[in-house]
Amino acid sequence: MTILEAKEIGVSYGSTEVLCEVSFSLRAGDYLGIVGPNGCGKSTLVKTLLGLIPPGSGEVTLFGAPAQNFQEWQRIGFLPQRLGTLACHFPATVEEVVALGLLGGKRFPKQLTTGDRQQVADICERMGLGGLGRRLVSELSGGQQQRVLLARALVNGPELLILDEPTTALDPETRESFYALLREINLERQTTVVMVTHDTWNIGRYAARLLYLDRRVIFDGTFAEFCHDPDMARFFGEHAGSTIYHEH
Amino acid sequence: MDFLEMLSFGFIQRALLAGILIGLLCSVLGVFLVLRRFSLIGDGLAHFTFGSVALALLLGVAPQHVTLAALPLVLLAAVGILWLGGNARLAGDTAIGIVSAVGIAGGVILASLAGGFNVDLLSYLFGNILAIGSEELLLAAALCAVVLLAVALCYRDLFAVTFDEELARTTGINSRTVNLLLAILAALTVVLAMKLVGIMLISALLILPPAAALQVARSFRGALLCSAILGTLAVAGGILASIVLNLPTGGTIIITCFGVFTVTVVLRRFLR
């Protein structure tokens, strides 16, 4: 079953072309890592996939429906980069933030049921946030905040999980456990995962498929193919190794 | 005249009741506006209200109907601020600044056409809650009920958009509609609050109680509740203090709110 399909997407900001003819598709259970240099259009691609930015050309379909008209948001979980609101003492508890992830499946006036609260408690427990439900999110560490946002993205049991540079603010140990957790979710629940990251080495170890973006798709295949692809070596030149493993 | 005898007067009872309702409204709505960094919309809409009131007075609208007469134009101004922000490539504060300036400038011109500033117009600038009539009290109660009901019914969407607009959109929330709702509720609140503290001080009533609540709140729901309690207490206290001390009501209310804010800032330091 095709979960997500991008057909020749083009996005421009004014006269600057940010994405050009980007095409790929994902099936249930896929784990795709999207990597590329700064300013290559990774975050723009994520926003376009989620329908937050309308593509100038091409089309995105989510579960068979055009992204712009997509309604079944409970099937998608999104984990953004660190949120500015968390840095400025926003008065929300862990439970309140995680429960926001349930709104996609709610109808007006969007009341939470006892079952919903249990779902929130369960996912908090699973994410190692047990006992922190009443704590203010802004008072937690960077790693804990990221787990709260992941719990928010997962609380609805989504079929597609999209993550935009989720490990940037994490220390190496927390980053490792974060990747392990994602792989578990991918394997256990067959959740399709799309992760945008700078961390080529780590995502290469965990994702089944790698997409290298630099405004257009430069490479689409496995990490092993990526490392041994003569075209990629030509693309990166003599510093291919350090470029691919630049974080390590 | 002792304190209890003072409370038996109808005009003081009306002022207290209206003040508590409007204070509650400003305190609750202000939490969303402050956290969205949208708090100056109160100032911009208040300044536009000045122009709307001047127009109503120029057209000969009776003083007890001025609040209602000013409402449609202020609602349009709220929509205008959002439209400018979304379509004219302007930041929110610039859009607010434009609407604010047009409101004040229009008000000054209209007041001049009417033969200069009169007592009525000045009472709207600085507030005169003690002069509130039964009809205006009913209007305040009705609008207060409408705004609080809207906040209660749309609480989750308002919270989600306040937390993060983009994240809210990925759960299917139409953030444009929520922003429009927030602007309309702000317009209704500002028009009501004009009678309480005056056009010049409305934004303070939208900012100070939420700012105080944010010092001590331990959850979003708690921030709303705390702001509502602190705001209504400060307004009621301010009205009573102004009567006892024979001070201007609007200014006394705001200074009382500031006093409450200061206490919470100190309290926060001790709670840490």
Protein architecture, described:
The complex is a heterodimer of chains A (248) and B (272). Chain A has 248 residues and is of the alpha/beta class. Chain A has a single domain, classed as Rossmann fold (3-Layer(aba) Sandwich). Helices cover 35% and strands 25% of the residues of chain A. Chain A is built from 10 helices and 10 strands. In chain A, the strands form 2 sheets. A 6-stranded mixed β-sheet of chain A has the order 6-7-8-3-9-10, sandwiched between helices. In chain A, strands 2-1-4-5 form a 4-stranded antiparallel β-sheet, with helices on one face. The mean pLDDT of chain A is 89. The mean pLDDT of chain B is 91. Chain B contains 13 helices and no strands. The interface between A and B is medium-sized, with 28 and 26 residues.
Number of strands of chain A: 10
Mean pLDDT over the full residue set of chain A: 89
Number of helices of chain B: 13
Identify the overall geometry of chain A. globular
Mean pLDDT of chain B: 91
Q: How do the strands line up in the largest sheet of chain A?
A: 6-7-8-3-9-10
The CATH homologous superfamily of chain B is named: ABC transporter involved in vitamin B12 uptake, BtuC
Largest sheet of chain B: none
Number of strands of chain B: 0
At CATH's second level, what is the architecture of chain B? Orthogonal Bundle
Order of helices and strands of chain A: EEEHEEEHHHHEHEHEEHHH
Structural class of chain B: mainly alpha
The helix content of chain A, as a percent range, equals 25-40%
